[in-house]
Amino acid sequence: MRLSRTSIQKAVAGVAVGTGMVAVTNANAAVVYDLRLASGAHSVNAVAGQSYTVDLWAIVSGTNGTNTDDGIQSSYAKILSTQLGSGGGIATGGITAAAVSTDFQSFSGTAPLHRNGGGADLNGDGIVDWGSNSTSSADTNYLFARNAGIVTGGTTIGSAVDVNTWQFKLASFTVTATTLGSGTTTFNLVKPNATAVTAVTYAVARVDNTAFNVSSTNQQGAYPSGGVSFVGGAPIPEPTTLGLAGIAAIGLIGRRRK
Q1: Could you give the CA distance from residue 159 to residue 34 in angstroms, rounded to a whole number?
Q2: How far is 91 from 200, CA to CA, in rounded Å?
C-alpha cells in the first residue's frame, strides 16, 4: 500500500492540531519530529546558569483509523541552533549532554548499537549544537536511537496523539544557558548531512503496517522539527499579567480624573 501525498499531508496536519505543536513547513511525510521542553512547552524565558531538559519526539501518522500499526525503530539526530536578535537568547552555552531513551536503546551482547552522539558548534554561531557535519552516517557524533525492532503504537512506549497518530520519545538533551543575550536562540532537528551513492536511511518506520523509511531520497516534510526557543533579556509577561496591568492603568486614570 502506498500512501498518497494528499493523505499524508492530512495526517500530519492532524498531528499538529492534536498536539498544539508548531507544524513543520512542507509537512508531507508520515514521520515528523518535535523538540519540546520536558514540560511540553516550545519556549521559555532563559535564566543565566540554568540547564533545561529538551525531549526529541518522533510522531508517526497513518490514515486507516488506527495507530497500533504505526511505529518507528530507529532514527539519527542532528540538532542545530539559530540565533536571532542581539546575542541570541543564549549568548554562551548550548547542548551539553544527550541520552537516548531507554526504549530506543539496543545492544549486541554488551556492545551498544545506539549512541548518544556528541556536541560541537556546527554552524559557527558560538552555541554548542549536537551531531556532526560529516557526510558519513557512521560518524559517532550523530545521535542514533535504535530499538531491536519496530515499536508500534498502542503500547506503553509513547502515547496517542489521535486515532491515526502515535508519538515516541527518542532522546533527551540538556541545554545550558551559561550567559544570556537579549534575543532568542532556537534549536531544531535538521536533516543529517550524510550522503551516499544509495539512499541513506535516517529513520526506519512503519505507517499503516507498511514500511516507511525517511531517507536522503525521501525526507520531505520530516525536517526541520518543531523547535524549542530560549528567550533572553527581560521575561515576556504572560497574557494574564498584561491584562491585570491594563486594568490597573485604567484604575489610575480614573482616580486622577476624579
Answers
A1: 14
A2: 35
Contact residues for 33 (Cβ-Cβ < 8 A; gap 6+): 24, 56, 57, 58, 59, 189, 222, 223, 224, 225, 226
Q: Is 153 exposed, middle or buried (0-12, 13-18, 19+ CB in 10 A)?
A: buried
* CATH number of the domain to which 209 belongs: 2.60.40.680
Task: Tell me how far apart the alpha carbons of residues 248 and 33 are, in angstroms, rounded to a whole number.
Answer: 43
For the question of whether the overall pTM of this predicted structure is more than 0.90, the answer is: no
Please give the residue range of the domain that contains residue 117: 5-257
Distances (CA, A) of 167 to 61, 132, 164, 185: 9, 25, 11, 25
Could you give the CA distance from residue 9 to residue 16 in angstroms, rounded to a whole number?
11
- What is the total residue count of the chain? 258
- For residue 138, CA distances in Å to 194, 200, 242 come to 9, 11, 50
Q: What is the DSSP letter of 103?
A: G
Name the domain count of the chain: 1
Q: Coil, strand or helix: which one is 94?
A: strand
Q: Are 67 and 163 in contact (CB under 8 A)?
A: yes
For 46-68, what is each residue's pLDDT tens digit? 999 999 999 999 999 999 999 99
pLDDT digits (tens, 9 = 90+) for 160-217: 999 999 999 999 999 999 999 999 999 999 999 987 767 789 999 999 999 999 998 8
Quote the CA–CA distance of 201 and 215 in Å, as a whole number: 4
In angstroms, rounded to a whole number, what is the distance separating the alpha carbons of residues 204 and 73? 5
Q: Distance between CA atoms of 117 and 98, rounded to whole angstroms?
A: 7
